[in-house]
Amino acid sequence: MPPKKSKHEIALKKIKLKKDSKMKLKKKKTTSSSSNAVAAVGGSENRGVDSEWWNSFWEKNSPISGSMVPQDEEEGFKYFFRVSKKTFEYICSLVREDLISRPPSGLINIEGRLLSVEKQVAIALRRLASGESQVSVGASFGVGQSTVSQVTWRFIEAMEERGRHHLKWPEDDNLQKIKSEFESSFNLPNCCGAIDATHIVMTLPAVQTSDDWCDQIRNYSMLVQAIVDHKSRFLDLVTGWPGGMTVPKLLKFSGFYKLCESGERLNGNPQSIPGGSEIREFIVGGSNYPLLPWLITPYNENDEVSGFNTVHEAARSVAVKAFSQLKGSWRILNKVMWRPDKKKLPSIIVVCCLLHNIIIDCGDYIKPDVSLSCHHDLGYAQQWCKQVEPLGRKMRENLAIYLENSK
Amino acid sequence: MLCSKSSKWLHRLRSSRGFPDSDHINLEHFLSNSLHKIDPQTSTDSAPPDKRPRLEKRDDGEAIQGRDMINNALSELFQMGEFQDKSRIKRKKSCRKQQCPRICVLSTNSDAQDVPVQKDKDSSPSPLPLPLTPNNRRKGKELNQELKVKERVEEEEEKCHWDLSGYSQTEVTVIDTSVPSWKFEKMLYRRKNVWKVGDKKGKGLMSSDRKKRKEILNENGDVRKKKLKLCSSSSKSGDAEEGGLKKKKKKKRLKACNSSKYVENEEAIARSKSTQGHEHCKTMVAAYEKKQDNCSQVQEKSFSLKKQIDGGSSVILIKSIPPTNKKDSSGIPKSNVKSMQK
């Protein structure tokens, strides 16, 4: 045993000597080449907030005459990343643990420096917000395309995990607030939200692609269905189902539908209205949805009770607005995605929705000019759903009468 | 060379399967003549599991018996699967004819194909010596269902499996926030306007993948350490290795504490979040500021520990760092940390 140990010791000494010499060399290199900026970045990678990235980004992408970029720096920040600096910091805090670069596996930029969490979040947000190619997003940050790809996906994974609490069905107190807001705004008692669906269009390889993804207007697409509150904040989301599916089917396959049908959701106390009838908790949806006791759709044009459809449409518009804001803010969802991984696309969509909610939750706002100027599902005609449940019909009649009487 | 090698394994094979043991028989000879030479009685006696399938196959003649036997022997030899379960091979054959050809388009569907076989395997220990026709397989499944209370979705899925002959199949990854797990994979069956959903064949759901990835993400450093451990064990003395391990364990503990704190904080945030907007956002921001402090403290600790490890460890640590990282990982951060700690 002892001789072995001595051999080891010798080996270790040799290694240590080598190491020491290398360390010295490195120290020399760092002292000669490292600038203050490097030191700042190096420090920020491990603690504190890195703001260096923004200075260089703003320098690179500062407004020039004729460009859309606002002159004000704060506005400029919002223009590029859709969020204020404060919200940005909060997002960074959510994902810091997952994104923090730990050598040697940490992501690096072209100069070989570790990417700070802030820069990673900025890259990912820019990619989602602009929908520009990974190459051009990378160029604006001084990183390569593969870095943008990696960083964005890491961010999405982290957000999907860490940001879940920003997208969930509200607890009783919150639901009560939502209901009262709907009642005060639209005169709809016990209304808990509005439902709508949209298509995320993509290209898929011609070979080996199932027709299921091909929708009614011959686009390949993925469906997103959301229920939103009066602030156009997402309360429930389903995505991943192929665009070839009809909206009623999409609803039927959703967890929300199952919960409602089993009486586990929208099961609050019914509200009595003058005339002795009761209104149970419900949501409003477009004519492409079935008329159910808990999902109220508009009247057919021929049968309309005066004024009901107008009120109904106003309430439903919060969902339309939400999708317009979503697709406008996170343009990656509004562009035709080029052969996305259909397993990853739902995560991208969900994270965009989470970011949408975070903006609202943080008291931030979405700039009006960011929203889509057109309908979020342009080109897709709403197909009238003929499915009508008698209880749903009765509910709608009661609501119509209530609206008529309360005029 | 080949002959000498083959004779060994052939000998082993013959003895295990109860074939006549003769040195004169090589593989080719065996393959070409075994059908005539092998006495079926002896072979069936030596391999009891063969009985059941043989009863079915008796009418097909000796040639098929021999072929089956060879198939089994080869499957055993080349690890094609469990040779003893002869029925497996037959079942596999019956499964080969897919109800919908689309399933084999994607490489991922290979899992989907395998799993029914696996399922059959699970059901095979049932005492019923059922011939493996689809009808009986279904009966077997129904029996299993009686024993085990399964979810309705699974029942639907099983029905789908057998009734969806003309349906196209598409794998979908769905995120549904009304489902506790959020993310799940399903198999979507479609025939014109009829859509049906079944569980995806195979267990490879995202959750497990994500867990693995999460582990990797959380233990970024630790993964590297494992590699280092291997390297160091080959180069360092036992004492140094033990010391290193202790330090690593400490570091792991620190990290675990950190992450658990983080999770608690997250939960607290989640709870507070559920109540309301702006003000809660402020509290969240405050919470994460605290969290940041904790983070930085623990990081500093781990950094100092790392420094110790670095000090005592070999050059291999540096070698393991990619050349592009060398500046940051070895030189700069240390100096920066030192300056910051001051």
3D structure, described in words:
The complex is a heterodimer of chains A (407) and B (342). In chain A, 49% of the residues lie in helices and 10% in strands. Chain A is of the alpha/beta class. Chain A has 2 domains: 101 residues, no CATH class; 218 residues, no CATH class. Chain B is flat and about 90 Å long. By secondary structure, chain B is mostly helical. Chain B starts with a helix and ends with a helix. The chains are: A alpha/beta (407), B mainly alpha (342). Strand 3 of chain A pairs antiparallel with strand 1 of chain B.
Strand content of chain B: 5-15%
What is the overall number of helices of chain A? 14
Enumerate the spans of chain A where pLDDT stays under 50 for 5 or more consecutive residues. 1-47
CA(first)-CA(last) distance of chain B: 72 Å
Number of helices of chain B: 15
Main-sheet strand order of chain B equals 1-2-3
Radius of gyration of chain A: 27 Å
Overall geometric form of chain B: flat
Concise description?
Helices cover 49% and strands 10% of the residues of chain A. By secondary structure, chain A is α/β, with parallel strands linked by helices.
Q: Which features characterize this protein?
A:
heterodimer; A: about 400 residues; alpha/beta; 2 domains; six-stranded mixed β-sheet; two-stranded antiparallel sheet; 14 helices; 8 strands; elongated; B: about 350 residues; mainly alpha; three-stranded antiparallel β-sheet; 15 helices
Secondary structure elements and pairings:
The complex is a heterodimer of chains A (407) and B (342).
Chain A: H1 2-33, H2 36-46, H3 52-60, H4 73-81, H5 85-99, H6 117-130, H7 134-141, H8 145-162, H9 172-186, E1 191-203, E2 220-228, E3 234-242, H10 247-253, H11 255-261, E4 271-272, E5 278-279, E6 282-284, E7 295-296, H12 308-329, E8 337-338, H13 345-361, H14 390-405
Parallel strand pairs in A: 1-6, 1-8, 6-7
Antiparallel strand pairs in A: 1-2, 2-3, 4-5
Helix pairs in contact in A: 5-6, 5-8, 6-7, 6-8, 7-8, 8-13
Chain B: H1 2-17, H2 27-37, H3 40-46, H4 51-57, H5 62-77, H6 86-96, H7 109-123, H8 134-147, H9 152-163, E1 168-176, E2 183-191, E3 194-199, H10 206-218, H11 220-235, H12 238-273, H13 278-312, H14 316-320, H15 326-341
Antiparallel strand pairs in B: 1-2, 2-3
Helix pairs in contact in B: 6-7, 10-11, 11-12, 12-13
